[in-house]
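Quick illustration, no need to memorize.
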Amino acid sequence: MALRLPHPHRFDVFAAVGGLLGGLLLWGIGLGTRRAADPIVLFDGRWPVLLPLFVMAGCELLRRAAPRVALLTATVALTLDTMTQGSLGTLLMFTDVVYAAVLYGTPASARRIPWITGLITVLATVVPFAVWRVPEALLVGVAVGVVSFAPASTGLIVRNHRDAAEGARLRAEQTALLAEMDRVQAVSAERARMARELHDMVANHLSAIAIHSTAALSIDEPETSREALGVIRENSVEGLAEMRRLIGILRDSGGDLEPAAAPTLDGLGALVESARANGLDVTLDTALDADADTARDSSRGPGPVPAPVGLAAYRIVQESLTNALKHASPGRVTVRLAMGAPPTPSGQWGKDDSLTVEVTSPYGDRDGPRAPGSGAGLVGMRERTELLGGTFEAGPVHGKVWSVRAVLPLTDTTAATPTPAQGGPA
């Protein structure tokens, strides 16, 4: 298998060519770093200087692509250069190779090279002075420090700054990504909220219109048709007003299109009366005190509750009555609200920090719905309950009775304050 050499970076090519040309220029004018009479010079003459110079230029080509190989080879070339008259170009290129080895090498190399060069610098300072006992011997350590430790330290500083900048860039990208995810989630939550509001406010009126228009077309009695048309007109006007308010919220146009106040449990009486006017046999049964063994029929809600809980309970009752109007069999529809857990087998409501909403209606004797449905109502009721941390159940019970039950906790409602993402009033 052929050995494939790494492709050098363009800047490394320029550095190698520049260092080689500079070294050849110094060689041509006969400028070296040592005299031929120095004891350390083992290879006298001008030509031996060129071998370390060319090898060091080759190491410059690999300074970024293979920094460890380049540093090891450059160390050998510098050792050979010390045995000749020497070249300033070789020394300068070696400092650049050391710098690149720390900057572009592995994290382990970046940690070790400054320590190794620092130790070599200390030894090059102490050992010659201990041997020769002259102050000039300290210059050996200075020269070694300038050639090795200084570029290694510089490379470490630059690498740390580069890593810090890269970390800041990654954190900025992560922050931007999280912000985009939050924006998408906020948009999705707002779309779901508006879908629930639109369905809850308009579906009841449209269902009544569909049912009474069918009755007006199928029964050939002027009085019945007149009553049906009156109900149709009333629901049309109310539905149109609510649609305008909802469009005003979306457009943020202000003026007389400001959203109406959020409904509360005090409006359950009016909601039940509206359902009765649409032809539904419905009763409202509320337990005002969780400790009471009995409940009384009332047009008011079960005392003050947090606004998010009251809004959710109202919308659940509203949607349940709409579904009963479309799907329920002939018979009585019962709406019951109580403070406490669902009733025990003895019929008493247990003690609990929650509001239980239960709507029951006859089920199973009708051939088909009186008005078409999409199933979005059950989804919306479940979403409203889960946003408050409650439980929701819907389905047939006791044979031919359809039950909708939601248990809404009354504690820790600060986390459930009605925000645009949680289905509260806009």
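Residues 138-218 form the longest helix (81 residues).
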